[in-house]
Amino acid sequence: MKVYLDNAATTMVDSKVVSKMMPYFSEKYGNASSVHSKGQEAKMALDDSRKVIAKFLGCKFDEVVFTASGTESNNMVLRGIKGITNKKEIITTNIEHPAILETCADLAKSEGYKIKFLKVDNKGFIDLKELEKMISNETALVSVMHGNNEIGVLNDISKIGEICHKHNVLFHTDAVQSLCKANIDLKNIDFLSASAHKVHGPKGVGLFYLRKGLKLKPLITGGGHEHGLRSGTYNVAGIVGFAEAVKLFSGSEIKNMTRLRDKLIDNILKIKGTRLNGASGEKRLCNNVNVSFEGAEGEAIGAYLDSNGICISTGSACSSHSLKPSHVLEAIGLKHEEMNGSVRMSLSKFTTDEEIDYVLNVLAGVIEKLRKISGWKG
Length: 378
Ligand SMILES: *Cc1c(COP(=O)(O)O)cnc(C)c1O
Prior knowledge:
The chain contains 12 helices and 12 strands. By secondary structure, it is α/β, with parallel strands linked by helices.
């Protein structure tokens, strides 16, 4: 049996999405900026896709800006706010994705921004009072992710946005993991990043929500696409795929993924010497499991599971090639051994009970074997 439980890294493109995209590679190949019929055919598909996404997010048609990735969306917002404000202070957290952390680091180094980091508690939540205290007259932007890609914690972006707006500060959230997997209310949000390949759409397509009236400084100049914000010929097929992927979520997937997530967590925690990393229940992404095993290395667990047809991750995909401990697990205060023994399993809307049963069965054997080798007695 083959089981893919690394959907936080990327997801399979839904076959229905592929079918919807195909014509835009072949007969409907027009440039959406061309005025002739071939171009207008593509433009219509682009408009329809934008409508679908705007409706899903609950925003206006022209508040959706397409990009080439979640990473690009994050960069566009963080680097683009200088078009809105001269203030040079950004408040973020120490559990963000590298697309935020590295961008902040570069802004500090090359443009003199001051970056302030909110600490998180042992579950991954920021302290709203600390946020309120940290905001100063110089604060331009607060960027706090919605669903964390490693431990799945869902911070309360509505409350965070409310605090930001009370103090006249812009609020951005990286919602790449939570799109289609948690409810999102844009009420107090100015910018929100998302990516198609995390929701069964194609790779290389992202977007961000941009509150009407806010004028970011563009990073890419050229033909003036996306109101001059992001020039470059439209990836019509990709955007059509993104919209279709979003449309195929009905809301019921969340319930099923939550059930399977909890089945996986509950059964893993029955094995002694285990712990769940991150929050539980509703404040956790419906598809995220992150657990630590005493007496077994995450890397070894991953390798043994892989040889049994099961793909999982140790830490996040971006950091698992390095032996540096995960900055997220470090931030929630895990001890060295707990970090070493951690694995992340991330489900998708296609994950089944049979797959979870198989994983639990294989995992029990793998842990037992590794603990025998390590001499762990418990
Ligand atoms: C995957 C991911 C990104 C990056 O998105 P890409 O489209 O792969 O560039 C950003 N933030 C989070 C939380 C992610 O999980």
